[in-house]
C-alpha cells in the first residue's frame, strides 16, 4: 500500500514497508539494549500473526495521520464537491423529499468515513479554475458599447421624465440620457433588454361625451361601495400611464416594462 503525502511544498511517498523496516530497526536496537518489546501475543518478532497485526495497525495510523494532516488528499476534489452539493441539496429540500436520507448515508455512498465527511462539509464552497473552468472573467471579444453604468443612467432618465422620456426613440435615447455613445438603434435595443425595457405602441382613446363621463364616475362610486377591501381589487388591472393631447397624435411608441 502506497500513500501520498505533501509537506512544505515537497512531495514524497510513504510506504508501509518503509515504516515496517524502520520499526524493525527500533525493535532490534531495543533488544540489543536489553529492553523488551511488548506485542499483543508476546514479545519481539514482526513475523507471523503478530507481524500482520502491527502492519494493520500501522496502516490505520498512516491513513489517519494523512487524513488529518493533509485533509484526506486521497479523496479527489470532485468527490468532495459532490458530497457538499448533495448534502446542501438535502438540507434545502427536506420537506420535498418523501424519504429520509442522512448525511451518513451520503458519506457511506461515497466511500468516505464519518469524520472525513463532516470535515468536507465544514470546508468553504469555493469555485476556482481547477474545478469550475468557466469561473474566470471573460476577456475575449469586443467590449460592450453600453456598460452597466450607462444602462443605469438610461433607466433613471426614463423613470424620471414621464411620458416625454418614454417616447424617445432607441437611436436618440443615449444622447437624451446624457451619454456620449456612438451606436446604432439596434445596439441600444439589445442593451436595454437587460433592464427589461421594451417599446410598445400606445393605446389610443376616442372622444368621451359628458354623459359617458358621468356614467363612468357613477360606476366607480358603485364599485367602490361594493368592494371596500383592497384585496377585492387585486384582480383589477389599472393603467399606469396616461397622456392627453390635442389633435391627431398618430401612432405613438412608448418605452416601458412588460
Structure explained in plain terms:
This protein has 258 residues and is mainly alpha-helical. The chain is built from 10 helices and 6 strands; from the N terminus they run ββαββααααααααβαβ. It has helices at 16-32, 48-70, 77-92, 103-109, 114-122, 148-160, 162-166, 173-176, 185-192, 210-226; strands at residues 2-7, 10-15, 38-39, 42-43, 198-201, 253-256. The strands form 3 sheets. The protein has a two-stranded antiparallel sheet. It is elongated, with a radius of gyration of 38 Å. The two termini are 65 Å apart.
Please give the number of β-strands.
6
Portion in strands: 5-15%
Order of helices and strands: EEHEEHHHHHHHHEHE
Note the total helix count: 10
Work out the radius of gyration: 38 Å
Low-pLDDT regions:
1-16, 35-46, 70-75
What is the general shape?
elongated
Instruction: Give the distance, in angstroms, between the N- and C-terminal Cα atoms.
Output: 65 Å
GO molecular function, one term: nucleic acid binding
InterPro entries: RNaseH_sf
List key phrases describing it.
single chain; 258 residues; mainly alpha; 3 domains; two-stranded antiparallel sheet; 10 helices; disordered N terminus; nucleic acid binding; RNaseH_sf
In short:
With 258 residues, the protein is mainly alpha-helical. The protein is built from ten helices and six strands; from the N terminus they run ββαββααααααααβαβ.
Amino acid at each position: 500500500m502506497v500513500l501520498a503525502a505533501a509537506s512544505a511544498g515537497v512531495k514524497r511517498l510513504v510506504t508501509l514497508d518503509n515504516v515496517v523496516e524502520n520499526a524493525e530497526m527500533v525493535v532490534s536496537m531495543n533488544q540489543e539494549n536489553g529492553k523488551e518489546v511488548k506485542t499483543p501475543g508476546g514479545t519481539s518478532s514482526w513475523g507471523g500473526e503478530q507481524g500482520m497485526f502491527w502492519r494493520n495497525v500501522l496502516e490505520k495510523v498512516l491513513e489517519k495521520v494523512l487524513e488529518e494532516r493533509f485533509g484526506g488528499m486521497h479523496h479527489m476534489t470532485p468527490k468532495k464537491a459532490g458530497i457538499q452539493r448533495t448534502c446542501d441539496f438535502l438540507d434545502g429540500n427536506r420537506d420535498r423529499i418523501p424519504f429520509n436520507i442522512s448525511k451518513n448515508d451520503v458519506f457511506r455512498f461515497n466511500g468516505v468515513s464519518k469524520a472525513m465527511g463532516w470535515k468536507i462539509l465544514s470546508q468553504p464552497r469555493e469555485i476556482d479554475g481547477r474545478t469550475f473552468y468557466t469561473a474566470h472573467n471573460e476577456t475575449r471579444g469586443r467590449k460592450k458599447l453600453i456598460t452597466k453604468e450607462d444602462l443605469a443612467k438610461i433607466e433613471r432618465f426614463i423613470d424620471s421624465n414621464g411620458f416625454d422620456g418614454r417616447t424617445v426613440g432607441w437611436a436618440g435615447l443615449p444622447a437624451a440620457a446624457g451619454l456620449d455613445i456612438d451606436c446604432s438603434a439596434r445596439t441600444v435595443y439589445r442593451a436595454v433588454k437587460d433592464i427589461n425595457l421594451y417599446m410598445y405602441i400606445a393605446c389610443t382613446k376616442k372622444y368621451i361625451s359628458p354623459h359617458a363621463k358621468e356614467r363612468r364616475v357613477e360606476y366607480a362610486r358603485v364599485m367602490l361601495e361594493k368592494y371596500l377591501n383592497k384585496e377585492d381589487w387585486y384582480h383589477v388591472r389599472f393603467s399606469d400611464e396616461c397622456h392627453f393631447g390635442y389633435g391627431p397624435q398618430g401612432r405613438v411608441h412608448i418605452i416601458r416594462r412588460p
